[in-house]
Write a structure and sequence with these properties.
This protein has 203 residues and is mainly alpha-helical. The protein has 11 helices and no strands.
């Protein structure tokens, strides 16, 4: 076959006529507010402006849409947290900033929408295996980060050296998710005081 003929072969598939990042950003609040089971294709159509046909073509089904939205949400949250913790000198300071980030996320309209990880935890026993695995990985990643910050704090002297790191990480992980749960109902009072109380567990 000539080079010219090869360049005329039809391209497989048509390019998507929408911005994937924008679509996922609009879908995330739907899943946050309604959960995986409660979010309908109609909800997703209204939020994203896509037709049902475009949704199924791009994501195959609601599970595929949720998986993409969940990955988008977790990646963005991790990046935001990383940026917030940059420049902080101690493990204790990084833990305090993590608490503040979650408190801010649990406040106002943002807090009322809820957390996509928390929404997944509520439905964990009913999620299909691939979605359950993604949720497990996200929670495990949060725990790993907490363990790392606690150990960094012990090394830099900002956290007492005999602290039981693994149990403390679990306490902090439960607190962070609990803040997002309470934030669905009302704003949490006095963020500074709450952070100070939480940090006492490190002394």
């Amino acid at each position: 076959m000539s080079k010219l003929a090869s360049t005329r072969r039809p391209i497989m598939g048509r390019p998507r006529a929408f911005d994937m990042e924008a679509v996922l950003s609009r879908a995330v609040p739907v899943f946050r507010e309604h959960g995986y089971e409660g979010a309908s294709i109609d909800h997703l159509k209204e939020a994203t402006g896509l037709t049902a046909g475009s949704i199924y073509k791009a994501f195959k089904d609601k599970k595929g849409f949720f998986a993409a939205a969940f990955a988008h949400y977790v990646e963005n949250r991790q990046q935001q947290l990383l940026e917030r913790r940059q420049g902080l000198l101690t493990g204790r300071e990084r833990i305090a900033e993590t608490l503040r980030f979650y408190l801010e996320s649990a406040s106002g309209p943002e807090g009322r929408r809820g957390c996509l990880v928390l929404a997944g935890l509520i439905e964990a026993t009913t999620l299909e295996s691939s979605l359950h695995d993604a949720l497990t990985e996200a929670v495990a990643g949060n725990r790993v980060a907490l363990v790392a910050m606690l150990r960094e704090g012990q090394e830099d002297g900002s956290i007492r050296s005999d602290l039981a790191v693994e149990p403390c990480a679990d306490v902090l992980l439960g607190l962070l998710q609990g803040l997002r749960a309470v934030g669905k109902l009302h704003d949490l009072a006095d963020h500074d005081a709450l952070i100070a109380i939480a940090l006492k567990t490190l002394d």
